Amino acid sequence: MFDEEVAIITGAGQGIGFEIAKQLAAKGVRVALNDLNEQLANEAVAAINKSGGECISIPGDAADVSFISEMVAKTVSAFGKVTIAIANAGITLFNEFLKYEPESFSKVMQLNLGGSFFLAQKVAKQIVQQKTGGSILFMSSVTGHQAHKNLVPYGMTKAGLEMLAKGLVVELSEYKISVNAIAPGATATERTLDDKSYEETWSRITPMGRPATVADIAHAAIFLVSPFSRHITGQTLIVDGGWTSVSPSPY
Predict the structure, then answer these.
(1) In which element (H, E) is residue 85 found?
(2) Alpha helix (H) ranges present in 5-64?
């Protein structure tokens, strides 16, 4: 199904990004795996390759436009092309609106929006040059749909990514590049499960009775970059167990 596909996935040293990389590699996609943490990136790549995948590590800052260009070039050098980009890297900095600092605001905007925008731009340029077509996927969030306390800037970036996916339809469809987004709800990852009450709280307020697993989100991602979704573009798929339909606060 994924014959000859090559993917770049940012922020994939663990959690959702790693699960997406692992599942794509298991389906024969050659993967360039990025994470800011070099050790995490290298360990993730080693695990994927040990399982029979073909994956390379490109650690670095996914908010840095120069590094993004370098990452695309390294992927093409290693695998001959790139056909899938998944902008998974993102940062969450909690604070009240009235106390939010400019430095924190800039960091969230630069990675969540800027990193995603310029990854899409650099990969799209490469795909246009290749004339192969391809897929771009952004990682939004339910916070782009429903307000969460202390997460206003984060929610702004996630809503912005969904508009970016829509906007790129008119820019990239002629090159057979689909652009979509996923909006995960509460998801059990290494980071969220550090909070001992996380799973209990979200199990109680999620209609399906539990938070998502990383596999739940990865399955949606695989679909949106697969041949099964070639005529789907400009869309956001919410994967939240029904939470946005009722939206009870976790607080």
Answers:
(1) strand 84-87
(2) 15-26, 38-50
Which neighbouring-strand residues pair with 239?
A: 184
* Set 140, 141, 178, 198: catalytic member: 140
Distance CA 164, CA 4 (A): 27
- Taking the complete model, does pTM exceed 0.85, yes or no? yes
Domains contained in the chain, CATH given: 6-244 (3.40.50.720)
Expressed in percent and rounded to 5, the helix, strand and coil fractions of the chain are 50, 15, 35
22, 116, 154, 178: the catalytic one is 154
Q: Let me know if 154 is a catalytic residue.
A: yes
pLDDT in tens, 196-217: 788 999 999 999 999 999 999 9
Residue among 120, 109, 12, 107 nearest 59 (CA) = 12
Q: Token pair 């430095």 is at which residue? A: 103
